[in-house]
Each structure stands twice: as structure tokens, then as C-alpha cells.
Design brief:
It is built from 7 helices and 14 strands. The protein has 332 residues and is of the alpha/beta class. The protein has 2 domains: 81 residues, no CATH class; 182 residues, 3-Layer(aba) Sandwich (Rossmann fold), CATH 3.40.50.410. The radius of gyration is 23 Å and the shape is globular.
């Protein structure tokens, strides 16, 4: 049975000073356990931020990160209309919320020790006091092994409880990881990331590419795919799942890495860590109007200088959803 992730928020509204009955100075104070009488109903107001954060990687022709750029060197547009950059940071000191999702199918988990050690070193290298990591495993179903924590020891312990299965629920894993990330705090320009180890071959029939990608885009999650290649030169290998993951990584501003030898898993994790550490972070206020009827809005970002545009490559998420359409929310 698939294990779903649900987040519940309980809001308690307290009356303002004007809504409380003022005590009569001539009377003794009421018992401390007496309930507060409310004279007027409390109105709850929900406020949704229109600030759109973007994590940006700039690399040269060798794939090396380019630092030292300033906000005024970029031009930003939403659905073709110019937007003003409201926030710009040259170094990514902003907090990270990461879901580490590991494929537990037999086709991937051929050397548990190497995979656990590589994941352990990644967690140790990436985790700062302001960051948090969630550990998930997926095969026939998707399981949250360790909820979001800043304790590397808990993740290390959870890596020993992943389990194995026969099938691979790639799209369900992305959907549920994105849903879980959507429940995290949005303070301080927090970046949301999915790091997935898998061969990319989705073998279950519940969940879809479209719903998984949409949920990732709705939560603002960047997908980093570490694609395990069982036999690199196998002409009969099904690469459709790999290509789907690559497209998801490109659309969300993440990246993909092929791992042809399990010994390369550690270096691949290190590339992810370096990529996240060398990001620029910027944000703008979304216009009130724009986007198609599904609520999807496209982001265009480029360097103003044509010479720099020719030398450098920009990687960022290609769009976001302004509002969930009526009836949306299914991962089927």
C-alpha cells in the first residue's frame, strides 16, 4: 500500500485586546481557569507572498562556476514582460531543504555499503545549521524513512533501514517528495531540492510524468538526478526513463549525472554539493496578471552583455505555477 505524506497545520486565533472584556477595578479578579468570553467573531486573513525565488547557476564553457556577477548584469522577464530583480545574492547562504530519495529496487541496490557511504558523506558535507534533510526510499511504494532533520546522525541511521523491492515508483517519489517540500518553511529564500538516486525506469502504473513535474514546479523543487547505469553499452537498455529524468532536471533548474560505476557515486554527490554551494539566489515580485489558464508562468533570465551570453550558460527553473487550477491535485 502506498504511504502518502500529509501535513497538517493547526491555527489558533486569540482575541485582540479590544475584544477582551475589561475587568472592573472594584471587583475581585476572576478565577484563572475561567474561559475568555469573545464578543465578536475572529476573522482569519490568509496572505500569500508573491515573491518568486530563483536559484541560478552560471557556468563557463568548461562547466566551471562563474562568480562575481551583479544583479544589474541580468535581465529578467515573466511571460515575456520585463520584471525587476528585488533580491540578489552572489553566494548561496540561503537555507536548504533537501529530500534525499533513494531507489530501493533490486536493479539499483547492488552494493548497499557503497551507496550508504556515498550518501552519508554527502549529508555530512552539505548540512549546515540552517539546512534540513528528509530521507525517502522508493521501490514498489514510497516511504519516508526520516522526516526533515538537521541531525546527520538520524539520516545515517535511516540509511540502514531503506529496504528493497522489485518495482520502481520514480514518479510517485518525485510527486511525494515535492509535496513534502511544499510543506517546509519559506523563510530566508529557502531553496528546495530533490536529490534522487535511481536508474530512472518507472515500472509502476500509478503516478505520471506530468503530475510529478507539475508538483515539483508548484513546490519550487530543483531535481538532481544521479542516474545509475546498469550496463552502459547495453543496446537493449530502456533509456526513456533516463530522458524523462533529464528533462525534469532541466525544467526545474537542477542537474543530472550518469553513474556508470558505483565508485563514481561519491564524486557525483560532490558535484551536487558544489552546484548548490555556487548558486546565485535572486527573487522578484510576480505581476498580478500573466500566465496561461493553468496558472503556469514562464521565467526568462539572461545576461545583458551579448559577449557574456556567448561565453556563459545560465541554469534556472523555467517557470512556476501562480495558482492551482480547480480540481487539480491528483498524481495519477
Amino acid at each position: 500500500m502506498k504511504q502518502l505524506l500529509w501535513g497538517w497545520v493547526v491555527a489558533v486565533a486569540l482575541p485582540s485586546a479590544a475584544q477582551r472584556e475589561a475587568p472592573d477595578p472594584g471587583q475581585p479578579p476572576p478565577p484563572t481557569q475561567a474561559p475568555i468570553e469573545r464578543r465578536e467573531p475572529i476573522t482569519t486573513i490568509k496572505v500569500q507572498s508573491r515573491l518568486v525565488p530563483i536559484a541560478l547557476n552560471v557556468v563557463d564553457e568548461h562547466g566551471s562556476p562563474v562568480g562575481g556577477l551583479a544583479a544589474e548584469q541580468f535581465e529578467l522577464a515573466e511571460d515575456g514582460k520585463a520584471q525587476k530583480i528585488a533580491i540578489f545574492d552572489r553566494e548561496s547562504v540561503t537555507p536548504l531543504s533537501i529530500v534525499l530519495a533513494i531507489d530501493g529496487s533490486e536493479s539499483v541496490m547492488t552494493d548497499d555499503r557503497l551507496e550508504r557511504e556515498a550518501a552519508k558523506q554527502f549529508v555530512k558535507s552539505i548540512l549546515r545549521p540552517q539546512d534540513e534533510i528528509d530521507l525517502m526510499a522508493f521501490d514498489d511504494d514510497v516511504r519516508e524513512i526520516v522526516p526533515f532533520t538537521n541531525n546527520a546522525g538520524k539520516i545515517d541511521s535511516g540509511l540502514g533501514r531503506l529496504g528493497h523491492g522489485d518495482a520502481t515508483s520514480v514518479y510517485d517519489a518525485i510527486y511525494l517528495a515535492s509535496e513534502r517540500l511544499g510543506e517546509t518553511r519559506a523563510d530566508g529564500g529557502r531553496r528546495r531540492v530533490i536529490v534522487m538516486i535511481t536508474d530512472g525506469d518507472n515500472t509502476t502504473h500509478h503516478g505520471s510524468y506530468t503530475s510529478a513535474l507539475e508538483q515539483a514546479e508548484r513546490s519550487g523543487a530543483m531535481i538532481y538526478a544521479l542516474i545509475i547505469v546498469p550496463i552502459a553499452a547495453d543496446a537493449g537498455r530502456n533509456t526513456g526513463g533516463e530522458h524523462a529524468l533529464i528533462q525534469m532536471a532541466n525544467d526545474t533548474g537542477g542537474k543530472y549525472y550518469y553513474v556508470e560505476d558505483k565508485q563514481d557515486l561519491g564524486p557525483a554527490f560532490q558535484h551536487v554539493s558544489e552546484d548548490l554551494r555556487t548558486q546565485y539566489t535572486l527573487a522578484y515580485y510576480a505581476p498580478e496578471l500573466g500566465g496561461d489558464k493553468t496558472g503556469f508562468r514562464r521565467i526568462q533570465l539572461r545576461l545583458k552583455d551579448p559577449e557574456l551570453r556567448a561565453r556563459y550558460t545560465l541554469r534556472y527553473r523555467t517557470g512556476y505555477f501562480g495558482a492551482r487550477p480547480q480540481g487539480a491535485g491528483s498524481r495519477e
